[in-house]
Structure formats: structure tokens, C-alpha cells
Design goal:
The structure holds two protein chains of two kinds. Chain A is globular. Chain A is built from 13 helices and 19 strands. By secondary structure, chain A is an alpha/beta fold. Chain A has a domain at 1-316. In chain A, the strands form two sheets. In chain A, strands 1, 2, 4, 6, 7, 9, 11, 12, 14, 16 and 18 form an eleven-stranded mixed sheet that branches. Chain A has an eight-stranded parallel sheet with strand order 3-5-8-10-13-15-17-19. The longest helix of chain A has 16 residues, at 51-66. Chain B is α/β, with parallel strands linked by helices. Chain B has one domain (4-95, 166-248): P-loop containing nucleotide triphosphate hydrolases (Rossmann fold, 3-Layer(aba) Sandwich), CATH 3.40.50.300. Chain B has helices spanning 42-50, 74-79, 97-111, 119-132, 137-141, 150-164, 180-193, 207-212, 233-241, and strands spanning 4-13, 16-26, 31-35, 55-64, 67-68, 82-85, 168-172, 199-203, 217-222, 225-230. In chain B, a hairpin with a 2-residue loop joins β9 (217-222) and β10. In chain B, α4 crosses α6 (150-164) and α6 runs parallel beside α7. The longest helix of chain B is centred in the middle third of the chain and has 15 residues, at 97-111. The relative contact order of chain B is 0.18. The chains are: A alpha/beta, B alpha/beta. Chain A binds chain B through residues 429-432, 434-443, 445-446, 449-450, 452-457, 483, and chain B through 50, 52-54, 73-75, 78-79, 82-84, 86, 89-96, 99-100, 103-104, 107-108, 111, 143, 160, 164. The complex binds adenosine-5'-triphosphate (ATP) and magnesium ion. The site of magnesium ion (MG) has 4 residues of chain B, from α1. The site of magnesium ion has 4 residues of chain B, from α1.
Chain lengths: 483, 250
């Protein structure tokens, strides 16, 4: 893949125009800790970005400086020192494990259960190793097939250089730079992410997965993804992987924007399993994500499916803006929290177009001392004639030290629109557990079976291979939570 | 060595003593029936035997194949060959029947160090067993016990027993809720599973069941004790005269 071939000369050439306080650092490919306009210029230069992109970033940064972090979520977020973060190519810290022996044994046990090969274990656990993927060839054949279909799938930084018109037209059009604190931050400093373009009438010949998107090593901290589906096209995109990933960067703030034109369909599936930290939550990732899809065209459809099991803190509301007539938005979610994890997640369905429909199925599972909140907004606007929403929000409690909360907001400005909301809270009953145990299933398998039964409606929305792994994952995430 | 030996078993739940010294021995190939008034501790005995959480053994012992099971968890006892057909089978929403049955069978196979079942073979086997018990294919596709009628649930218990082939089967009021025809079908199913290796403990209120599943011995449980034991004629006696006069607590 061409995008990541950056030579120091090229960078220096491009960066010569600017004055940095840390010029010498360019050779070491690092920016200093902390955030400033200089750092943003550095990032932009390293990415060989055009001027407009830099301006866009700087504008976002200036917004961000004036903003404050959201405080409305039911989350207890320790103060984050934004000046203590590396925004570009953080050096491997002394804290990074040097071998698997230094990695949390719990994490290793999980890898074993998921059957992850040793090399990949190292990479996921953040052990310093050279690239272990031998998927370059896989990715190449993959790319050829996509190119034949006219599909563009590449790192966002490559798209900024190669397809500037598309990127300029759409980036920030769904999630404006100033949308929220974390999206503004992301807009200023993103270094990574995917770009997908599906032309008119094309059905993407395969499921696109971030797993095959080879790019820079330090992936994932400030990802920026943009997917555009032109008229009558279809794409299914998979993000994340089931193996718990460690990352030295505690703060993750991604932005994902989807645009579906007339009769187009985008199916976006996520399995999020960032390291949740130890039993006190120490070392766990903070995941503050802004995901939004715009159903711009008539009869367009966007479907979000997520399985959230990782992270110490999750703040995430994949949403749909249903502008097209008869457009469809869907949100299927399983959020599992255990130990000291906190999740505040849900969706927003903004109905603008006539006859637009949305479905929300949320399954929250809380165990340990965790807190799990569903927060959702359904908004029927004036023109949303005869629009419909159905929301089903179920919580399952495992044990009695955890919390489950449901916070639905409903706004209707059109009397012909209908909103239906159902919510339940239940526990894994001792009866159910004993019934399974009696049949010889061990407790782990029993809990996994019962919980997967609870989430079935969501799991069946996942692509097949993902679903099988996700099922296993849910069982593992709840290990030790009963009895 | 007997299959099951219950020795002077005392047990309590929630600080209430329920079983006050039960002695009962079941040999391989034997079927024992337990009858007794409501609340006398029959289901409690079945739970204590199968190791349910919260049921505390305060005295005595339970030996399976000569080995005490008191230190074993419920799932270990299950895999060791104990099976309980529940008086009130539990619904498992969303849990597919086939997946559940397969998980149970595989748990035993794994324990025995054997390979897991072949999926297709297993489905065939389940269908065949189900047919014998008058269980419709459609029921096998539904989540475990969800929306099953009372009688369907009981048949499903026996289906599980047939698949798991336990060495000791405890049937807690499997006959209640069954219509006449179902009673026959289920009893036949149970009788098919009678073997020289297997022991059964059949809890019932009705002598009628024992016409179909003829027991070697009948015990009357009252007030947490076995107050009388005898052959199958004891069940007829109870049918005739009730439990009056059979024990202080009855
Ligand atoms: N969780 C509990 N806490 C306190 N007492 C209990 C509990 N469970 C059962 N009991 C009591 O133990 C006694 C025995 O109950 P059990 O269910 O074993 O009776 P049974 O013989 O099976 O009755 P039935 O014929 O109605 O099924 C009853 O008095 C019951 O109220
Ligand atoms: Mg009972």
C-alpha cells in the first residue's frame, strides 16, 4: 500500500515551509507531547496534506479550545490532561510490555480462549514487535478486486491526497467540526482511519474490514472514517476485532461519517473490545466516539450494529439523520459492562423526511460493579409525515452491585409520526442458572448461553463470522461475574 | 456398591431445616418412587441431591457410586451422571433448543475426554428421540421451554434425559400436567431408559404413574423424613387412605 511510504526527505521538504519549535524532532518522526497549532501543522505536513486540510484542522482546533467536555453522560470521567498526550507517533514508553510475560495474565487467558496466535497476541497486547501481519498480499488481491468494481477503500490520509474533491465535499458534512468536544479534537488531530467510496449502482463485492486496512502502526487513537455510498449502492463495513486490544493511548476519540444517497444501503458493524483495565479499571481505554450517518437520498438505509464489551469508559451514540423520503435507520446494540467499566451508549434517530422509519434494539448487560446506560433520542421533525420509530431497550443485570439505566428522549413535532418505546430490566435468575448447571454446563457456559439468548436479536444482525466470535466474546467478558 | 446412598441426610434452605435425616439406597437397575404430601420436602430432596446453590447439607452424606458428592458443584454432579427432570422446567428466552441440548451433551463428552458430537448427526438423533416422545420438530427450533405448554415442558425434560443418558435420573412430578395419552407416551419413554446400569427416583403424587412405571420400592416422605417404605402396593394404600396415619408429620 502506497500511503504509508513516507520518507523523511519528503516530510522535510514539505515541512520546510513552517517554523516549528521542535524542528530537530522531525528526524525522529515525533511531535512533542501536548497540543498546539504547531503540532497540528506538523501532523498535516507529515501526512503531506494539502493546505485546505490544514486550515480545516486549525479551525477545528480553535473551536475545540473554546469548548468544554460534555458532562451530561452518566459517566465518571477522571480529568484528562490533553497536554500530556502524544498526538503523533508516540514513542514507545518504558511502560510498554517488553514481552508477553509482562502482560496482564487475564488478558493472555482471554487470547488463549479466543484462539489467537502468539504473534498476534503480542501485537494486540502492545508488545514491541515488528509488524506481524503477513496480510500484505491478502490486502493486495483484495484491493484489485475492489478496484475492478470501482470501489475505493484506502486510508483516509491517502484519500485526502488522492481524492481531495470527494473528501472536501463530504468530510465534516455529517459530523460538523464543532459538533462536540471530542469530534472537534478529532478533526484537529486525526491521523488514521478509512475512506470508502461506492459508486452508483455498485454492490461492494465483499465485506470491508478495518482488519485488512494496513497502515500506520499506532492505529486507533484518533480515527476518522468516511463512507460514501452513491445511488443504489451497497456496502457492509466491519470495524474492530473481538480480541481485547491494549493501547498505550488511554484516550480514543474517533469520528465516523456515513453518507447514503438514494436507494443506497450502508451496514456498519462494530465489535469494540479495547482493554477495559484491571479489576479497578486501571489502564483501561476511554472511548469517546462520534458516529453519525446521513440518509440523504430517498429510500436510503443506514444500519448500525455494535457489540461493545471493552474500554474502561464508553461514550458513543451512533446516529442516523433520516432526511430522505422513506429512508430507514437502524441501531442494534449489545453493550456489556463488567468490573469497573462504565458505558453510556445509545443512538439518535433524527427524522426529517416523510415516511422515514427507524428501529432501535438495545441490549445492555451489566455485571460486577459496572454501570451501563442506554441514552437515546428519537426526534420527529415537522416534515416527518407518517414517520415511525420502534425502540426496544432491554437491560440484564448479573449480580446486584451493578447499575443499568435507560434514558430515552422523545421529541415529536409532527402529529402523524409514531414513536413506540418498550423497555425491560431483568436478571439472570438463579432458576435459569441452576437449570443449565444441572444439565452439566459450567457456570461460564451457562451465563454465556443465557446472555447470548438475551442478545439474540442483535447478534443475528452481525455478519456470520463476526457473530460467532462475538458470542464467544460476550461469554468471556462476563467471566467470574456470577456466584 | 450401590448407585446412590443417602445417609442420614439433613438439609436446610434459608435457615429453615427441611430434611431431617433421610436414608435411602438405590441400586443399579432399580426404580424407587417417592410419594408424600405437599411441602414434605420431595423437591427439596431432589435439589439437595443435585447440588443446587442455597441448599445446605447440615448432616449426613450422599454417595454416588460410593463417592461423596457433597463437595461437587451442581454441574459436576450433572456431568457425573445425575439428571433432574424438573417439576417446573425453566424458560431460557433466546436460547435455541438445539444449541442447548448440544451444549449439554458436549459438556459430558468433554468431561469423558471424548470428541464433541457431529452437528448433523446430533440433529438427526434429537429428531428421532423427539419423535418417539411426540415432540414436534417446530418445538425443537424454539428457545428452551419458552411458550411450551405444561405437558410439552415435561416431554422436553424426558427428551433431555434420553439424550444425556444419566446413571441416576430423578423425576420430580413428571406426570403432573400430562394428559392421559401424554402420560403413556412419557412413561414409555422412561421405561425405555430403564436399564441394569441406571437408577431412577420417581417423585409423584399419583399411583397412576406407577402403573406405567412400575417401581421396585415406594417411600413415603413426610415432614422431611421417610416415614414408610414398601413395594408398589404401598402406593395403592396411599391412594386409598391418604397419608393419614403414616407418620407424625404427615
Ligand atoms: N427457598 C425456601 N425458603 C424457605 N422454605 C422453603 C424454600 N423452598 C422450599 N421451602 C419449604 O420447604 C418445604 C418443602 O418444600 P418442597 O418444595 O421440597 O416440597 P414438595 O414435597 O416438593 O411439595 P410439592 O408436593 O408441593 O411439590 C416447604 O414447606 C417449603 O415451603
Ligand atoms: Mg415438589
Amino acid at each position: 500500500m502506497v500511503a504509508t511510504v513516507e520518507t523523511i526527505e519528503a516530510v522535510e521538504q514539505a515541512t520546510g515551509a513552517y517554523k516549528y519549535g521542535f524542528v530537530t524532532d522531525i528526524e525522529t518522526e515525533k511531535a512533542p507531547r501536548g497540543l498546539s497549532e504547531d503540532v497540528i501543522r506538523f501532523i498535516s505536513a507529515k501526512k503531506l496534506e494539502p493546505e485546505w486540510m490544514l486550515d480545516w484542522r486549525l479551525k477545528a482546533y480553535r473551536y475545540w479550545l473554546k469548548m468544554t467536555p460534555p458532562d451530561w453522560a452518566k459517566l465518571n470521567v477522571p480529568p484528562i490532561d490533553y497536554d500530556d498526550i502524544y498526538y503523533y507517533a508516540a514513542p514507545k514508553s518504558a511502560e510498554a510490555p517488553k514481552s508477553l510475560d509482562e502482560v496482564d495474565p487475564e488478558l493472555l487467558r482471554t487470547y488463549e480462549k479466543l484462539g489467537i496466535p502468539l504473534n498476534e497476541q503480542k501485537m494486540l497486547a502492545g508488545v514491541a514487535v515488528d509488524a506481524v501481519f503477513d496480510s500484505v498480499s491478502v490486502a493486495t488481491t483484495f484491493r484489485e478486486e475492489l478496484a475492478k468494481a470501482g470501489v475505493i477503500f484506502c486510508p483516509i490520509s491517502e484519500a485526502i491526497r488522492e481524492y481531495p474533491d470527494l473528501v472536501r465535499k463530504y468530510m465534516g458534512s455529517v459530523v460538523p467540526v464543532s459538533d462536540n468536544y471530542f469530534s472537534a479534537l478529532n478533526s484537529a488531530v486525526f491521523t488514521d482511519g478509512s475512506f470508502v467510496y461506492i459508486p452508483d449502482g455498485v454492490r461492494c463485492p465483499m465485506e470491508l474490514s478495518t482488519y485488512f486496512r494496513i497502515n500506520e502502526k499506532n492505529t486507533g487513537q484518533f480515527e476518522r472514517t468516511l463512507i460514501i455510498a452513491e445511488d443504489s449502492s451497497y456496502v457492509s463495513y466491519l470495524e474492530g476485532c473481538t480480541a481485547p486490544q491494549r493501547d498505550e493511548n488511554q484516550l480514543h476519540a474517533a469520528v465516523v461519517e456515513l453518507v447514503a444517497q438514494a436507494d443506497a444501503e450502508i451496514k456498519y458493524s462494530t465489535v469494540q473490545n479495547w482493554y477495559p483495565g484491571d479489576e479497578t479499571g486501571k489502564g483501561g481505554i476511554y472511548n469517546f466516539v462520534t458516529k453519525r450517518g446521513a440518509c440523504r437520498g430517498d429510500r436510503s438505509k443506514i444500519s448500525w450494529t455494535q457489540v461493545e464489551t471493552g474500554s474502561a469508559i464508553t461514550w458513543k451514540y451512533p446516529s442516523c439523520v433520516l432526511k430522505g423520503k422513506d429512508s430507514v435507520g437502524e441501531f442494534y446494540s449489545v453493550a456489556v459492562t463488567n468490573g469497573a467499566q462504565q458505558a453510556d451508549t445509545g443512538t439518535k434517530m433524527i427524522h426529517l423526511g416523510e415516511g422515514s422509519r427507524s428501529t432501535i434494539i438495545s441490549k445492555g448487560i451489566s455485571a460486577g460493579r459496572s454501570n451501563n446506560t442506554y441514552r437515546g433520542l428519537v426526534e420527529m421533525n415537522k416534515a416527518a409525515e407518517n414517520s415511525r420509530n420502534f425502540t426496544q431497550c432491554d437491560s440484564l443485570l448479573v449480580g446486584d452491585t451493578c447499575g443499568a439505566h435507560t434514558v430515552p428522549y422523545m421529541v415529536s413535532r409532527n402529529p402523524s409520526a409514531k414513536i413506540e418505546h418498550e423497555a425491560t430490566t431483568s436478571r439472570i435468575s438463579e432458576d435459569q442458572l441452576f437449570y443449565c448447571l444441572q444439565r452439566g454446563l459450567d457456570e461460564e457456559e451457562a451465563v454465556s448461553l443465557i446472555v447470548n439468548g438475551f442478545c439474540k436479536e442483535v447478534m443475528k444482525e452481525l455478519p456470520m463470522e463476526f457473530a460467532v466470535e462475538a458470542q464467544k466474546l460476550i461469554g468471556i467478558s462476563l467471566e467470574g461475574s456470577v456466584g | 456398591m450401590s448407585l446412590l446412598e443417602i445417609k442420614n441426610l439433613h438439609a436446610r434452605i434459608n435457615d429453615t431445616d427441611i430434611l431431617h435425616g433421610i436414608d435411602l439406597t438405590i441400586g443399579r437397575g432399580e426404580v424407587h418412587a417417592i410419594m408424600g404430601p405437599n411441602g414434605s420436602g420431595k423437591s427439596t430432596l431432589s435439589y439437595v441431591l443435585s447440588g443446587r446453590d442455597g441448599y445446605e447439607v447440615t448432616g449426613g452424606d450422599i454417595l454416588l457410586d460410593g463417592k461423596s458428592v457433597l463437595e461437587m458443584e451442581a454441574d459436576e454432579r450433572g456431568r457425573a451422571g445425575m439428571f433432574l427432570a424438573f417439576q417446573y422446567p425453566v424458560e431460557l428466552p433466546g436460547v435455541g433448543g438445539m444449541a442447548f441440548l448440544r451444549a449439554a451433551v458436549n459438556a459430558r463428552l468433554r468431561e469423558a475426554g471424548k470428541d464433541e458430537v457431529d452437528q448433523l448427526e446430533f440433529v438427526k438423533m434429537v429428531r428421532a428421540e423427539a419423535k418417539g416422545l411426540g415432540i414436534k420438530d417446530d418445538m425443537l427450533k424454539r428457545p428452551v421451554n419458552v411458550g411450551f405448554s405444561g405437558g410439552e415442558k415435561k416431554r422436553y425434560e424426558i427428551l433431555q434425559m434420553a439424550l444425556l443418558k444419566p446413571s441416576l435420573a430423578i423425576l420430580d412430578e413428571t406426570d403432573s400436567g400430562l394428559d392421559v395419552d401424554a402420560l403413556k407416551i412419557v412413561s414409555e419413554g422412561v421405561n425405555l431408559l430403564r436399564s441394569a446400569e441406571r437408577g431412577m427416583l420417581v417423585i409423584t403424587h399419583y399411583q397412576r404413574l406407577l402403573n406405567h412405571i412400575v417401581p421396585d420400592q415406594v417411600h413415603i416422605l413426610a415432614g422431611g423424613r421417610i416415614v414408610k417404605s414398601g413395594d408398589k402396593t404401598l402406593a395403592l394404600e396411599v391412594e386409598e387412605n391418604g397419608y393419614a396415619g403414616l407418620g407424625d408429620a404427615a
